[in-house]
Design goal:
Blueprint lengths: L1 E2 L8 E3 L2 E2 L12 H7 L24 E2 L4 H6 L4 E4 L12 H12 L5 E6 L2 H10 L2 H13 L18 E6 L3 H13 L4 E6 L17 E5 L11 H14 L3 E5 L3 E3 L8 E3 L7 E5 L10 E2 L2 E2 L7
Parallel strand pairs: 2-5, 5-6, 6-7, 7-8, 8-9, 9-10
Antiparallel strand pairs: 1-2, 3-4, 11-13, 12-13, 14-15
Length: about 300
């Protein structure tokens, strides 16, 4: 469990799974892949999960049952699940996913934030299984470690304390991922539009969403986010009454004047924006959108 995380919209992160694979442009500069590559040598935590030569995910994904007990003891109100993987990765069995979900519903006082690039798998899983399936899978895993589940758990299905989001970085991913997300019938569904790589019109789905996060890309090779793209989503959320969270500008922020390192980001609809590279700031300035910090959350 990583407490005091730099991810602004959560209080802690936990990864009961490890490993992943790339699926779209949003994965090009994956921070998790880069971090895991540092620990991919023989004997290290991600050996076999990242190719030591290329630094890319191998597609191998496994659950980490040793993390379950830590999750069951957490006191955080909001926890981001699987920052180093994807809960609904195609390499995982339904039993593995169920075992993780069984932990989530056994901590009803915690809001578990699950972000996936595979909402179609989430749709299939949530339609095919229920709380009893998940609890049975978790008990089976814990029994091998001499552990057990608490008596209290969420009975509703899909569980009310699991906020399910999908990643949307461009128009193609929006059209592909939002419909199956809506079909999951999860009580709280939303979008993580990070890194936002182009303007996305959410109007076909906006009234069904409960939360939208927007952020620019950071790290080596980051691509700038046009201010108009962030404003467009914010305005759609405000008009529809959907909670909006602006996470960060990322590696590039809007420039007030031309400087040697500034660059023009073209946009046919809104015109070019002057962007300047900077080290992403984790203070209020790095989160300002039109002079305001947007930190709205969905109702539980």
């Amino acid at each position: 469990m990583n407490r005091g995380t730099g991810i602004e919209w959560t209080e802690a992160t936990v990864s009961p799974m490890r490993g992943c694979s790339r699926v779209s442009e949003g994965c090009r500069n994956c921070y998790a892949e880069r971090w895991a590559a540092r620990w991919s040598a023989r004997g290290a935590a991600f050996h076999g999960f990242v190719d030591a030569e290329t630094g890319k995910w191998t597609g191998r994904v496994e659950i980490k049952p040793q993390v379950f007990e830590t999750m069951l003891k957490t006191t955080e109100k909001r926890v981001f699940v699987n920052s180093m993987s994807d809960t609904f990765h195609e390499s995982l069995s339904d039993h593995a996913i169920a075992a993780v979900y069984g932990v989530l519903i056994s901590k009803p006082e915690t809001i578990w934030q699950v972000v996936t690039k595979r909402p179609a798998r989430a749709y299939e899983f949530l339609r095919a299984h229920d709380a009893d399936d998940c609890l049975a899978a978790t008990r089976a895993v814990l029994a091998k470690q001499g552990g057990e589940l608490p008596e209290r758990h969420v009975r509703s299905w899909p569980p009310a304390n699991v906020h399910l989001l999908t990643s949307v970085e461009d128009r193609a991913s929006a059209a592909d991922r939002i419909p199956p997300l809506l079909g999951t019938r999860a009580p709280v569904i939303g979008l993580s539009c990070e890194p936002l790589l182009e303007e996305v019109d959410l109007s076909p789905w906006i009234h069904a969403l409960k939360w939208v996060i927007v952020g620019g890309e950071s790290g080596s090779g980051a691509r700038p986010m046009h201010p108009a793209w962030a404003r467009a989503i914010r305005d759609q959320c405000v008009a529809a009454g959907v909670p909006f969270f602006f996470k960060q500008w990322g590696q590039f922020c809007p420039a007030m004047m031309q400087t040697p390192d500034a660059t023009w980001l073209p946009d046919q609809t809104h015109g070019p924006a002057l962007m300047v590279p900077w080290w992403p700031r984790r203070d209020d300035v790095g989160r300002l959108l039109d002079g305001r910090i947007w930190s709205e959350y969905p109702k539980r």
